[in-house]
Write a structure and sequence with these properties.
Elements (H helix, E strand, L loop, with lengths): L1 H12 L10 E3 L4 E8 L4 E4 L7 E5 L4 E8 L2 E7 L11 E11 L2 E15 L10 E16 L7 H5 L3 E3 L3 E19 L2 E22 L3 E20 L2 E21 L3 E14 L5 E3 L2 E13 L3 H14 L2
C-alpha cells in the first residue's frame, strides 16, 4: 500500500508545474440530471473490553443516488434497495444540497442508516442482528478550487466540461454532527459525535481524444472528534484525533449532452484510540454514473433567475 501511495504522489505532483491549462465549458444554463450507483456501505466497530471486537454492517448491496444541478444550485436524493440475501432489512436515506459559488463549492448533507448485523455472520442469524442500531448524520463540506483552469464540477457534478489537461489543490473543511443510537436490554444507548477535519485534496485530469478523461485523486484528512456517550449510568465525554485517506481513480466520457463514467476508491478512516462505537471504513468500492443535460423548464429558469438577480450568485 505504501508503494502505491508513493507512486501516486510522484505521478500527480510531477505534473503540477507542467500543466497544460485549457478551456472549461460551463453548462450552468442547462439542467443536469445524474444517476449514480455505488457499492459503498456503512460499517461500525463494536468494541467491548469484556468481549472480542467485531464489526457490524448494513445489509445493503448498493446505493442509488439521483441528482439535479442547475446554475448555482444542486440537489441529491440517495437510497438503497433492500438486499434479497435474507429477510433482514436495512434502511438508508441521504439528502444533499449544494451551492456553486465561482471557485467555491458548499455541500450540506443529511444521512440516516438503520439496521445492522455482524459482518462475519450470515444476516439470517437472528441473534446477531442489530435492528435498532441507527446512525444519523448532519454534515457540511466547504471546498475551494485553487486552479481556475481545473474543474471539480466536471468530475463530481457534471455541470462543466474540462477540455484540456489540468490539476488543482483543493483544500476542504469538513464538519458535522453524528448521532449513534441503539437499544440494549431495553435501555437506550446514545453516542453524539461532533467532527471537524481538514482535507488537502489533489486531483489531476488527463484528457484523452477530446471527449474521454482519466483522473486520479488523493485526499488525506486529519481532524478532531468530540464524543459524548449517554446511558443510564451518566455521560462520558472524550476527544479523539481522527485520520482518513481516500485514494480514487475516475474515468469517463463527456459531450455537450451526456456524461458517463466510473470511479474506484480506496477509503480508510481511523481514530487514535478504541471507542465503543466508531464509524470505520477500510475498503474498496466502485461507482458508475450517467448524466444528461437539457434545457430547463421555463418556470424553473424564471425562479432561479429571480433569486440570482437579488442575491448576486
Amino acid at each position: 500500500m505504501k508503494l502505491i501511495l508513493s507512486s501516486f504522489f510522484i505521478v500527480c505532483f510531477s505534473f503540477v508545474n507542467a500543466q497544460d491549462f485549457g478551456s472549461i465549458v460551463s453548462f450552468k444554463d442547462n439542467m443536469l440530471v445524474k444517476f449514480n450507483v455505488n457499492t459503498q456501505n456503512e460499517s461500525f466497530s463494536i468494541q467491548d473490553t469484556s468481549e472480542d471486537n467485531f464489526t457490524v454492517t448494513a445489509d445493503n448491496v448498493y446505493r442509488v443516488q439521483v441528482s439535479a444541478n442547475y446554475k448555482f444550485l444542486g440537489l441529491s436524493v440517495g437510497f438503497s434497495p433492500s438486499s434479497r440475501r435474507s429477510d433482514f432489512k436495512s434502511s438508508f436515506r441521504e439528502y444533499q444540497l449544494r451551492l456553486f459559488l465561482k471557485q467555491w463549492i458548499q455541500n450540506f448533507q443529511y444521512r440516516k442508516v438503520q439496521g445492522f448485523y455482524d459482518e462475519g455472520i450470515n444476516p439470517n442469524d437472528v441473534s446477531l442482528r442489530f435492528p435498532n442500531l441507527k446512525t444519523t448524520n448532519w454534515g457540511g463540506e466547504t471546498s475551494y478550487v485553487f486552479n481556475p483552469k481545473f474543474s471539480l464540477r466536471h468530475l463530481l457534478y457534471l455541470n462543466e466540461w474540462q477540455r484540456e489537461n489540468s490539476g488543482s489543490f483543493i483544500p476542504t473543511l469538513r464538519y458535522g454532527f453524528n448521532r449513534l443510537s441503539d437499544r440494549i436490554e431495553n435501555e437506550k444507548v446514545v453516542q453524539n459525535n461532533f467532527d471537524i477535519a481538514i482535507a488537502p485534496r489533489y486531483y489531476y485530469t488527463w484528457i484523452v481524444k477530446h471527449n474521454w478523461f482519466v483522473t486520479p485523486s488523493i485526499s488525506p484528512a486529519i481532524g478532531l472528534r468530540f464524543s459524548t456517550d449517554k446511558s443510564s449510568e451518566g455521560d462520558i465525554k472524550s476527544t479523539y484525533i481522527t485520520k482518513a485517506l481516500d485514494v480514487g481513480l475516475q474515468f469517463g466520457y463527456t459531450s455537450n449532452r451526456i456524461s458517463a463514467g466510473a470511479r474506484f476508491n480506496f477509503e480508510s478512516n481511523s481514530v487514535n484510540e478504541a471507542v465503543k462505537r466508531n464509524v470505520i471504513n477500510d475498503k474498496n468500492y466502485a461507482s458508475i454514473y450517467f448524466g444528461f443535460r437539457f434545457n430547463p423548464p421555463r418556470y424553473l429558469e424564471e425562479k432561479v433567475d429571480w433569486i440570482n438577480d437579488r442575491i448576486g450568485l
